[in-house]
Amino acid sequence: MSSPGVEVPAALAASYARSLGDEGRAWTAALPGLVADLLDRWDLRRDGATSAGAASLVVPVARRDGVRAVLKLQPPRAETAAALAGLRAWDGHGTVRLLDHDPGSGTMLLERLDGARTLATLPDDGVVIQVLAELHARLLAVPPAPGLPHLRDVAAALLEQVPRAVPGLADPAERRVLRDWAAVVAELAAEPGDRMLHWDLHYDNVLAAEREPWLAIDPEPLVGDPGFDLWPALDSRWDDVVAGGDARRVVRRRFDVLTEVLDLDRERAAGWTLGRLLQNALWDVEDGAPALAPAALVTAEALRGGPPGPQPSGRS
């Protein structure tokens, strides 16, 4: 089937040029030819406007039998291989369904979902967190795919980085907070868990679908304790959470729903969530941030039952 050539969004091209230099520019330059090759090979036609995710090109297509799908193109890396393994294991059980895959390029052919309708479009946060928690429970019920990265290794790497990161924080009190989070992770690290985690299950990574009301997209599968998987949901729509005037209460309510639906030990789940805050903080310090994110501090206080106090105005 012949189709007009695809245009790579400028933002995606610029992102890869910044992050990968010549390699990134070469990858984005090759995308139109790759799309044309895959359309011919898989007998597809273009069926909508091309868009871009954070790190991928998304091309709506239709198969000869009329089934609507999307091509998702991203460089073939370890993260792509993990996502493929996870999607095969879930096999549409709570996630977007993988229809085909090109090993050479890392391209996925996925079932078409409604990209304009995410869970974040629903106004009632109580309804949203309940839907997400029930979907999360379905994902956790599927045994892990072989060969996925493991939380034990992630935790070990985090603890190794902490001594180098601490001096990068300007406030001695925040240095103590970072050490405290690390101490909690060190206590939990001997039992890192054995469930297959999505690792990025926030409100915008759940889309409306025809096959089911809601399905998860963009997994970054990891084997470990489900407590390490809660933070994206706790942090979703953060600007709205802060604007409501009681961010700690919202975090605690979301945490309560997640731990109840997923049947998690609350203390362990809170501890592994602090581990996720530690991971984010280490990334921020590596990028030059001199302070912990206000959202992280609010979340940590909420999980530890800290008293309400002045609410930060945002993420900065």
- Portion of residues in helices? 40-55%
Q: State the secondary-structure class.
A: alpha+beta
Describe the main β-sheet briefly.
Answer: 6 strands, antiparallel
Evaluate the radius of gyration. 21 Å
Strand content: 5-15%
What is the end-to-end distance? 49 Å
| H/E element order | HHEEEEHEEEHHHEEEEHHHHH
Write the layout of secondary structure elements.
Blueprint: H1 10-20, H2 22-41, E1 44-46, E2 51-52, E3 57-63, E4 68-73, H3 78-90, E5 98-102, E6 107-111, E7 114-118, H4 125-140, H5 151-165, H6 172-188, E8 195-197, E9 206-208, E10 214-216, E11 222-224, H7 231-235, H8 238-243, H9 247-261, H10 266-286, H11 294-303
Antiparallel strand pairs: 1-3, 2-3, 3-4, 4-6, 5-6, 7-9, 8-11, 9-10
Helix pairs in contact: 1-2, 4-9, 5-6, 5-10, 6-10, 9-11
Describe the structure.
The chain has 316 residues and is of the alpha+beta class. It is built from 11 helices and 11 strands. Helix 5 packs antiparallel against helix 6 (172-188) and helix 5 (151-165) crosses helix 10 (266-286). The protein starts with 9 loop residues before the first helix and ends in a 13-residue tail after the last helix. The model is unreliable at 306-316 (pLDDT under 50).
